[in-house]
Amino acid sequence: MARLTRQGLPAGLSALLAVGAGLLTNLLTSGWSWPLAIAFAVLIGVYVGYEIWRASRDDAGGPAAPPAGAPTPQRRSVVPPWGLLPAKMHGRDEVLRTLSAVLDPGVAHEAQLHVLCGLGGSGKTTVALSTADAARRSGALVWWISARDETSLVSSLIDLAAELATPEETAQARVGVRSLTDLVWRHIEARTDRWLLVVDNADRPELLAPDGGQVSHGNGVVRPASGGLVLVTSRVGNAEVWGNRAVLHPLGRLSSDASARVLLDAAGAAAGSDGDAVALGERLGGLPLALRAAGRYLSSTAARLDGVTTFAEYRRLLEERFTTLLGRPSAEPREAVVSTWELTLDLLAEQGDDAARKIMRLFGGLAPEPVPIAMLDQSVLDRSLLFGRPARGWLPSWASGRHRPVYDPQAHSRVLSDLCDFGLLDRTTPASGPAPAVPCLVAHPLVAETNARMVRDDAKLGREVRGTVAALLTQASRRYDPEDPSTSLWWALLAPHAEQAVDVTPGHRGSRRELRLLIRALCTVSRGLCGAGDYLTAHVLAERARQVAAHNLTADDPAALVARCHVADAVAHLGDYATALEEYREVLTVQRQRLKRDHPDALRTRRELAWLQALRGMYTEAEAGYRELLDLQRHRLGAEHPDALRSQSDLAFVLAFQDRFDEAEQEYRDVLARQRRVLGDGHGNTIRTRHYRAHALASAGRFEEAEQELRLVYEARTAQRGPKHPDAVRTRQELGWVAAIQGRYEDAEEHWRAVLDVLRDTVGADHVDTLRTRHDLAAIAAVRGRYAEAQRELPLIVEQRRRLLGPEHPATLRARRNLAWLNAELGDDAAAEAELRTILAVWRRTSGPSSAEARLTEAHIEALPKHRRPGEPRPPLWATGYQTAAPDRTEA
C-alpha cells in the first residue's frame, strides 16, 4: 500500500481530477448530471481496485527495489562521510563509551538495536561518525547508509548488497526477484568479524519496515544484532517505534563547558575568552549545530567583512540578525539551524499532523519555560483561529465540516506525542516541595526563539497566536483556586507565560472582551503567586496587567480596577501597607459609583481594605468594614460561602486585637465549625483561622492551649507548602512569641533566628515580617543582658518602622517602647519616661485607656526608678503573663 501511494496513485488521480474538472464545468453551466456522476464514481472504484491488486503483487520484504528496465539509481557510497567528523568531540563521552563497549569483542551482549535520537541539530550524525571512526581504528568493518528518503535508502542498500553478496544475488534483488533487505542481512549475520552498520537520518522509520510491517518487528532494514552494532540516527525518540530490543540514546544540549570547547575549536582562541565562549554557548542553548554554525561564521571571510570576529560580538549581533546568522543559505537544509526544525514539521505534515506546526508557533507565543500540559486545553485550541476553526462560506454545513471537531482530543494527544518523539518538545515534570508535580512540555530555547520570531514577523499569525494564548491563560487561571495551597506550583508555572502574553501584546490589538479576560487572568495568576509567597513576581505581573489596562481601557473599567487592586495586594504583601491602603480606598470609591454594592469585585475590594486597616492598627474602621461586608456577602452569597467565612474569620481577628477575646473566641468557634464542614480541615482558609485563633488564645493567657494548636498548624502548613512558605514561617514566628511570653527565651530565640534566615532570603531585610523578627530578637537580647546588641538594632528598627508603617502604627509603638525601656536600663530614665508617656497617650487615644497595650506601657512607667520604692526591684520586661509581654503580636 505504501508503494501504491508513492507510485501509481498520484498519476492516476491526476487524470481523474481532469475528469472531475469537466464534471464541475458541467455542473456550473448545464446543471447536475446524475448519470455522469455515477460513471465518474465507478471509474474511481475500478482504478483504485486495480492499483491495490497491482501493489499486492509486490514483494513485502522492505523497500521496493527498482523495477526491471528502470534507470539505475544514483550510486551512493556506503563509506561514512568522514569529512563531517570534527577533530575533537566534546560532551558526548558517556554515549561514546557505551557504544564502543558494544563493539568490544571481549564483551558479550544480547542482540540489540541502538538509536541515537534527539532534536534536529543535536549532533546525532556527529556521534555516529565518531563511533564509526573508533570502530574503523579498532579494525571493525563499517558501513554507512542513508535513510533520508526512499531513493537514498534503496540505493544505499543496493550498494551494500553489491559489497556483501554475489553479482547474481545483487542482480536478483535489483529486479525484485528476492528481498533486498533479507539478502543484505543474510550476509551480515554470516560474518564472524566485527562490524558496524550506521543508518543515518532515519526520520521516517516506516521506510525501514517491510510493507505492512513495523520497524519494531525486527525484520526490516534495521534489526537487533549481537555480532556487531546496528546504530540508527533519528529524530524519532519513541521507544515503541523501535521495539523492545532497541536501546535509545537521547542526545540533549551540551554542557556549558563542552559548548565553549566546540566554539573555541571552530573559531580559535582569538575569538575570545573561555568566559565569552561559555556565554555564547549558553545563548545558543548548547545545540551542536548552532555552535558549529557560529564557529564557522567567526572563522569565515564574511565575518571579517561584517566586522564580527569575537564571541561577544556574535552574541550581540545575534539579537539583530538571528535568522541571517542561523539560517544561512546552504545546499543542505539540515545544516541550517532555523530550517532544520521546519524539515521535521514538514515531515509531520506529510504524515497528517498538520497541527504540529501550529503547536510550535503557539510555543513561540509562550515563554521559553516549561508549559503545563493541562494549560494546552484541547477545547480552547479547537475554538481558536490558529487551529483553523471553519469560517462561514458558501459551502453547506455538511461540506464545510462545521459540525465536526477541528482539533479533537485524539489529534491533540497524537500531535503532542509526535512533537516529543521528534525532539521538538521535551517532557518534564517540575516539582517544588510538597506541592504535587505538574507534567509539562518545554521547547529547546533556540526552537522557541525561532518560532517566536516567526510569530512576531507575521502579523496575521501573531494575531492568531496572541488570541489563542489569551484564551489558554484565561481557561488555565480558572482551573484551580489561587488560595488552595496545593496549587502553588501551578501558578509559578503559569507566571512566565502570563508575563509573555503581555510582552507579545504591546498596545493590545485584540477585542475588548479578549483584553478584559486576559487582564483578569493575569490578576488571578498574580493572586496565586501571592498565595505561594512569590510576592515580587506577583507584583510584576499585576503591574503589567495594570499597564495594559491603562493603555487600552477607561480608568473606571471594571477590569482596570481589578488590576489596580491586585497591584495593591502585591504591594501589601511586600510590606507597604500605607500605599496599598490608599490604592484600595481610591478603587472602592470608583467601584461604588460604577458597580452595585454587592458586585464581586467591590466585595473583594472591601475585604482587602478592611484587612489592611486591621494591619495598620485601625481596628474600629476595620471592624465596621467587616460587619458591612459580611452583611452583603451573606445576602448575596450565603452565610457559608467561602468568602463570607473568610470575612467572619477576619472579623474575629480584629476583635481579638481589641482585647475582646470572648467575642473573638465565639466567632472563631462558629467559623471554624463551618469551614471544616464546607472546606475541610486541610483547606488554607481553615488552617489560617486556626492560626489566628491560637494567637488570640495566647493573647488571653491560654498559653499551653495556644502553643499546642500552633504546633499542629505549623505541621500542616509545612506539609502543604514547605517550611519556607510565608504561612509556615509566620506560624513559627508565633511559636517563638508564645515561648517568649512564658519566659522560655532560649526557645524563642531559636525559633526567631531560623525565621530570620528564611525571611532574609525570601522577602529581604526591610520587609515588615523581617523587621518584626529583628525586633523580637533585639528585645530578647535586651532581656538577656546583651545591651550592646539591642542598642545597635532597636533604633534602626524604630526608624524603618516609622518609614514603612508610620509613627503611630502598633508595631512602631512597641519598638519605641522597648527602646525606651532599654534606655532606662542604660541609665537615661528621663528620656525613657518622656518617650513612654508619649507612647501611652497614643495607645489611650487609639486603643482605649484600659487596653492591654496601654496598661503595659503604664507598667513600664511605674517601673522607672523615681516611681519605685527604695529597694524594690525593677520588674522584668517579660513576665509570665500577656500584660508584660514585649514581642510583637501578629501583624499579617
TrEMBL record:
<dbReference type="GO" id="GO:0042802">
    <property type="term" value="F:identical protein binding"/>
</dbReference>
<dbReference type="InterPro" id="IPR011717">
    <property type="entry name" value="TPR-4"/>
</dbReference>
<dbReference type="GO" id="GO:0005524">
    <property type="term" value="F:ATP binding"/>
</dbReference>
<dbReference type="InterPro" id="IPR027417">
    <property type="entry name" value="P-loop_NTPase"/>
</dbReference>
<dbReference type="InterPro" id="IPR019734">
    <property type="entry name" value="TPR_rpt"/>
</dbReference>
<dbReference type="InterPro" id="IPR011990">
    <property type="entry name" value="TPR-like_helical_dom_sf"/>
</dbReference>
<dbReference type="Pfam" id="PF07721">
    <property type="entry name" value="TPR_4"/>
</dbReference>
<keyword id="KW-0067">ATP-binding</keyword>
<dbReference type="Pfam" id="PF13424">
    <property type="entry name" value="TPR_12"/>
</dbReference>
<feature type="region of interest" description="Disordered">
    <location>
        <begin position="865"/>
        <end position="892"/>
    </location>
</feature>
<dbReference type="InterPro" id="IPR053137">
    <property type="entry name" value="NLR-like"/>
</dbReference>
<keyword id="KW-0547">Nucleotide-binding</keyword>
<protein>
    <submittedName>
        <fullName>ATP-binding protein</fullName>
    </submittedName>
</protein>
